[in-house]
Amino acid sequence: MKDFSAAGEMPDMNMLARQIKAWGQELGFQGVAISDTELGEAEARLLDWLGKGYHGDMDFMARHASLRARPAELHPGTLRIISVRMNYRPPQARDSWAVLDEPETAHIARYALGRDYHKVLRKRLQQLANRIQIAVGPFSYRAFTDSAPVMEVELAQKAGLGWRGKHTLLLNRESGSWFFLGELFTDLPLPIDPPGGSYCGSCQRCIDICPTQAIVAPYELDARRCISYLTIEHKGSIPEALRPLIGNRIYGCDDCQLVCPWNKFAQDSAEMDFAVRHGLDKASLRELFLWTEEEFHQKLAGSAIHRIGHERWLRNLAIGLGNAPSSPLIIEALQARAEHPSPLVREHVAWALSRHLG
């Protein structure tokens, strides 16, 4: 592309937008689209959701509510948002349904089986910004990927990358929902893309399959019941009534995606960073529960899982072991942690042992 900065000319924004999309594809994004910053209706829905307390103890959701719906306040000068998506389903990962059918095996959400996606997407977004800067000269921008108060799904939907499914995730007709989202906020007055349609129709398989019935209505999620929230974001004790429903899901939950008809079109990721590490797609609950804290840090450094820390890792695994069929080896593993220094771990281990020993 012509170097407008060197020529001292105003770039052709239509041509630049086409180039940005081509560069994005070269950098490994399967979708690139552009929107403006208007999120008034989304802000009203967010405030209603917060008012119902569905955010649980994610106080940051309420603390930065206005910034989420006002991109130009989050990054002053923002005129356009370049939204991107990148497939993450790891190739050759063990079938999720098979893992869920084995109560002694740990099920981990597919997105977390490889390296931390934040670093991968941020790096590619920075590379995209670098290419734009070479073409047009210095411009204002900021890259995000699930790392700041950004309404990613709303922005991606607005740009036409897909539509919000009844499970609240973004769906795409060609790729289902197994992808990450990222954004590049910019002051460039690029042409915007039109939003697409919504294609869930009367289907509500995601609502029906949810183990804890966290999808309380179409497009409305009560995070306080969501297994992903409980095993990742929630820092305290998991409500006892929900523990048996968690089964062997120790980090996140994919059920609503697994059952979605649109995911028959989903494609595996070509990114080696998202490939399965340390056999996490087939590891037993007992094996992971017996990892020392040092092993946890060593093996999960660079993984999204590492963020929850060893204490919550053990909490989640104790629930999985409490739901597993009783065996001497499982009871022995739980008893080995019965006097753990953490009250949180001790509580969940005691609950699990009570399930096996009465």
Radius of gyration from the CA trace?
Answer: 22 Å
Helix count, per DSSP?
Answer: 18
**Structural class determined from secondary elements:** alpha+beta
Q: Percent of residues in helical segments?
A: 40-55%
Oligomer: single chain
User: Which sequence of SSEs, written as H and E, runs from N to C?
Assistant: HHEHHHHEHEHEHEEEHEEHHEHHHHHH
Largest sheet entry: 4 strands, antiparallel
Q: Segments where pLDDT lies below 50 for 5+ residues?
A: 1-7
Total number of beta strands: 10
Mean pLDDT: 95
Strand order of the largest sheet: 1-2-7-4
Overall geometric form = elongated
GO molecular function: epoxyqueuosine reductase activity
Protein name: Epoxyqueuosine reductase
Binding site for tRNA: 235
Cofactor: [4Fe-4S] cluster; cob(II)alamin
Notable features of this structure?
358 residues, alpha+beta, 10 strands, elongated, EC 1.17.99.6, epoxyqueuosine reductase activity, iron-sulfur
Write the layout of secondary structure elements.
Blueprint: H1 4-7, H2 13-26, E1 31-35, H3 40-51, H4 59-63, H5 65-68, H6 71-74, E2 80-87, H7 96-100, E3 107-108, H8 117-136, E4 141-144, H9 152-159, E5 163-164, E6 170-171, E7 179-186, H10 205-209, E8 215-217, E9 220-221, H11 227-233, H12 243-246, E10 249-251, H13 255-258, H14 285-289, H15 293-300, H16 309-323, H17 328-336, H18 343-357
Parallel strand pairs: 3-10
Antiparallel strand pairs: 1-2, 2-7, 4-7, 5-6, 8-9
Helix pairs in contact: 2-8, 16-18
